[in-house]
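Section 5.1 Outputs to date
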Amino acid sequence: MSLDDARKQIDSIDDQILTLLDQRADVVSDVRRAKQAEHAPSYDPERERQLLDRLAARAGRFPKEAIRSVYREVMSACLALQEPTKVAFLGPEGTFSHAAARAFFGLAASYLEATTIDGVFDALRKKEVTYGVVPLENSTEGAVTDAVDALIDSARWEDSTADADLLIRQELVMEVSQCLLTRATGLTQIRRVLSHPQPLGQCRMWLAKNLGAVQLVQTTSTATAVREAASDPESAAIGSRLAGDLYGVPIIRERIQDREGNATRFVMLAHEDAPRTGRDKTTVVFSVKDGRGALLRVLEVFDREEINLTRIESRPSQRRAWDYVFLTDFEGHRDDSNIVKAMSELRERCPLVRHLGSYPRAPTSPSR
């Protein structure tokens, strides 16, 4: 086959794909009417995940992850024909939270930039958006404390039986590759490095070795840092390739994080959590009574029910001085019989127990 013949064949295939996309859009209109008749939500994250898994499993020569990316955008565009999904994230555009939100919802969603993590939670509470996306922890620097505290604060402290008003609906573990972006011609011209505290910590050793004498300046987000570096040739920012593209700041060094496999866990927040899938994770917050061995006796409840804890940390309760609560993740869904039993026993033993969400576990790979 000649090159001209091959190109004509590709053009023909592309025309067929466009025809099929139009047919899919027509069916989406039928789906919208059916959802309205049944009062079903326009967006179903679990249905989308199942479709992506099914299509990726059928991968041939076309790469599996590319199938996910292509069909996520197809689904996002089709969903916009029904009703654009409104999503809040920690802005401005170009943050890793922005990239995570696009990984969850695609390009066709309607995005709201929040200036703080608390702003994401506030937008959800005010129902300005349907979903929120925030970073919860990093494999190098640990918990994103602003997000953890906001999640704990979403618990309805005044009602001892209620869940939190905002719940984790889904999680995404995304590889985070930190770049040094600047208009300076070389490292010796840089006087300041700007970024969010988390990336500064993730690149601590690289900065000490290569830019030990420069001033480190904390900003509210990586994208804010890149935007400020765009107008100052003596400043550099640590941020994403996406931010550099959006704000026109060249990358002078790539992958400057201290550890390979640096990954951040992002969570999708909603007013309800996810149905059981059989491969789930649950997040709860609880407090313990003062006294020797109080925490040990609570942890024994999980052990007795054969529940695998994947994370636990203590945080100030914000209710009174020196009062702490424990945020924990564990394998399983709130509807699993052993977790139902464990939660019942925890409520008998603990002054406070709040469910913060059950949701599908993210793939173990650092990238989706």
